[in-house]
Amino acid sequence: MKSDTQTREYIDYMNRQGVTTIDYVANSPRRFGATWKKRDVNGIIGMCYHQALGNTNVDQTIRYQIGSNSHFKNKPPSGCYTGFVSKNGTYYIINNLRDRTWSQGTTKTPGDENALYFAVCFQGAFTYPNMDSWSKGICKEPSAAQLKAASGIWLKSQEYFKWDNGMLLGHYHFGKRACPGTELEKIVEHYRSLAPAGLATFELSTLKGMQRALESLGYNPGPADGIMGVKTQTAIKNFQEDCGITVDGIPGPNTRRRLEIIYNKGKC
Question: Lowest-pLDDT range, 25-39, 175-189, 208-222?
């Protein structure tokens, strides 16, 4: 498999901006005959950082995930992330941008989180308070090169995709509390703190956050309980109609992006 045009354009952009980025799509180990489902690259609303939970390099990490000893019951076609950052800060793109990898999906939030977020994994097992035992004592901090890359990858990807700072997340936002570890969490939270007040207050990746945002705009979605009731669906439909997008009552990526735009620019 080779990288597609969208992926190569992104890689070329990152390199021009000084972020050492390797096109590893053709070299990435793959499970024979298996392919990823696809997503709309224009529907990706942000990025999520992960840690590998081990000191394996990019090839070793992918081979574990697709191999017989993998913790995945159903083996993935390739590595479960779009990007991988080595100890020396090199940024590998291991799947095409439109490949819907299994990075952070959860039933706790509405929509397809694997389609909505671009996932990047950092080589290593990193510390988190009171949660080091799972890594059997191998926890260390990210290298200085990785921490520099974490900022550079976000800033230049944000610039390329026109994302807001509130759309950088860690795996802990999806229930994996120790991932990506203390130091990378500090970077995630730093950039999230720079988001417009609305996005910092409303976690738009969750239905509760969308309900709160809709309530603040006067759409009366009912209580912010994370439940898709009649009032919430009606509020979403009314919001979609006012913004001139497809009226289906579904809190999908287009609706979330419109909410993001409102808190950036004050209008749909």
Answer: 208-222
In angstroms, rounded to a whole number, what is the distance separating the alpha carbons of residues 3 and 115? Answer: 18
211-241: per-residue pLDDT in tens? 888 887 878 898 888 899 999 999 999 999 8
Helix ranges (H only) for 176-216 are 182-193, 197-201, 207-216
Q: Give the neighbor-by-neighbor strand order of the sheet with 21-23.
A: 21-23, 91-93, 83-85, 117-122, 46-51, 168-170
CB-facing half-sphere around the CA of 213: CA atoms within 13 A: 29
Distance (Å, whole) CA 186 – CA 242 = 37
Right CATH number for 198-265 from 1.10.101.10, 3.40.50.620, 3.40.50.2300, 1.20.1730.10?
Answer: 1.10.101.10
Q: How far apart are CA 267 and CA 255, in angstroms?
A: 13
**Which of these, 86, 75, 84, lies nearest to 30 by C-alpha position?**
75
Q: How far apart are CA 112 and CA 39, in angstroms?
A: 10
- Three-state SS at 24: coil
